[in-house]
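Researcher: Checking consistency across runs. Here is SURF1-like protein again:
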Amino acid sequence: MPDAPPARRSFRAVARQPRMITILLIFLAAAAVCGRLGVWQIDRAYERANLAAEQEAAEAAVAAPVAIGELLAPQASFPGELVGREVAVTGTYEPDGQLLVAGRALDGADGYLVLTPLRVSDDGTGGASWASLSGEPVLPVVRGWVDSSTPDPAALEVPPGEVALHGWLQASESTARSGVVPDNPGGPPLTQDIASSALANTWQGPIYTGYVVLTDSAPLQTTAAEGGPAPLPRPVLEGGADVNLQNFFYALQWWVFGLFAVALWVRLVRDEMAGGVRERRSSRDRGGRDADPVGTGIAGLPSS
């Protein structure tokens, strides 16, 4: 009767051997080091991105105001690097189109932004930037913040005639917010977003794909102390949350090395399982040949 094939040891039985446990601990330590190095690289990735954004913000803050026409033309796409740039523009406010942007906070208090259309007359290009368009463009201007949807009339007053203003550029928002904006009896119409795509349907003429957060104007508007809208801080540069890709891929490499160490230990255990079976099969075969002096060579002759 032929001998039964040697039993295969289980993965658990092989893995619990002292030698395998020692190897596992070494590999786990190596994997932990790789994992920690990967986390360090991720931290570096964000740190470098934040430093780059801070440097960009600092450079933009000290830069002199630039005519808006040198940076952005009406209806042109808004480059992200323009966020926070201070621009100069001249035009006339159109208070009949004024809106309040709901759900905006200042210093932890909920309130509204005062959004006023400015019909641009001088963007620094002598009108060349809108020469091919239907007329003078309109620029959304956030003149400040109020705490009520029916603010003091002084907050809604605009300087008469032509106004030369400075302000921070900000990109147009989307219209993704849900919900119906309620009517605002006793105050200007409300909106949820400063979205050029929606404002173009309300204000006539070409429109910019960004808006300006007012910092100064000549003539001056009513100050907050006199009932005017409260000034707003400079828009935050987006991009500080981005990841530096070089450090990010370094982090991935370290994590792959850590996984490879664990996978290598699993492979060693499986090889040990297969090797034990081969050794027992080999020992059994050698024992059979030693007990048979004639052997099992060709035509019953002894094996050489």
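Researcher: Does this match what you'd expect to see?
Model: One thing to look at in this run: The first helix runs from residue 11 to 15.
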